[in-house]
Write a structure and sequence with these properties.
By secondary structure, the protein is mainly alpha-helical. It is built from 15 helices and no strands. Helix 11 runs antiparallel to helix 12. It is elongated and about 70 Å long.
Length: 256
């Protein structure tokens, strides 16, 4: 089980990519501007750190890590304490798999300005390090907001999944496990808001929670859904085969 969890954590680092939430500090036109328009604006206004950070973010989303890194370093020379620039540099370092440096930048950004995007980015960075208590603390204020207009459905779903996924492998009382399942079912209902590569996570963790309760038949529909969404993820395949076997369906267990 620990090997499967480790595989899941590595997968999250590889596929999760860069957080795509908008920077609400930027004027609306900068958020909606094309990359070419941002280039022109940044060239004319190099002192506008938020704009430079947004342009770096765009390059990062396009896979141009080198260009993004160069731009964000320029922004931080102008404003070393810009929360948005520090956050985007954290995104760049995460994309480069430099988790320690990414964590440092996210924490510095949060110390200057607390926002949901940075909290979730830091939580994501701590997943492969298996620092679940810190992940839970980071996500708790996001979860506490409920269905607030201050956060997107994607952000709420991610906060629920990150928290529940970490707690699932810890000692839990029946009441705690019930609460965890409720959170995961909510996340599953919001799964269409998640990035495509993350949509398998809520049903996977739900299936795991039912296996933990020795209810394999209840686990099967969720694990089948998870497998359909991520057919190459070994964790879902292994757990689905196990659920079939525990339910007495050895044929499906042997062919999964």
């Amino acid at each position: 089980r620990s090997l499967l969890l480790g595989g899941l954590l590595v997968l999250l680092v590889l596929v999760w990519g860069v957080m795509r939430s908008q920077d609400h500090q930027l004027p609306k036109w900068l958020i909606t501007a094309s990359r070419e328009e941002l280039v022109q604006y940044v060239n004319a206004h190099p002192e506008q750190t938020d704009a430079t950070a947004e342009l770096a973010h765009r390059y990062l989303l396009a896979g141009s890590t080198t260009e993004a890194n160069s731009l964000i370093e320029q922004a931080l020379k102008v404003s070393p304490y810009s929360p948005s620039a520090l956050r985007v540099r954290g995104d760049v370092q995460f994309a480069l798999h430099q988790l320690t440096i990414a964590e440092r930048d996210y924490r510095k950004s949060l110390s200057l300005q607390d926002d949901t995007r940075t909290r979730l980015a830091l939580a994501r960075t701590l997943i492969p390090l298996q620092r679940y208590a810190e992940i839970s603390d980071l996500c708790a204020p996001v979860i506490a907001l409920g269905s607030s207009s201050d956060i997107s459905a994607e952000q709420r779903a991610q906060a629920l999944v990150y928290t529940a996924g970490g707690k699932l492998y810890s000692p839990l009382t029946p009441q705690e496990l019930s609460t965890l399942q409720a959170q995961l079912k909510e996340a599953d209902s919001l799964s269409n808001a998640l990035p495509r590569e993350e949509r398998f996570l809520p049903p996977y963790f739900l299936g795991e929670s039912y296996l933990r309760l020795a209810q394999p038949k209840e686990a099967i529909p969720y694990l089948e859904k998870s497998t359909a969404l991520a057919p190459t993820f070994a964790g879902s395949l292994y757990s689905l085969s196990r659920a079939y076997r525990l339910s007495g369906d050895t044929v499906k267990a042997d062919t999964t």
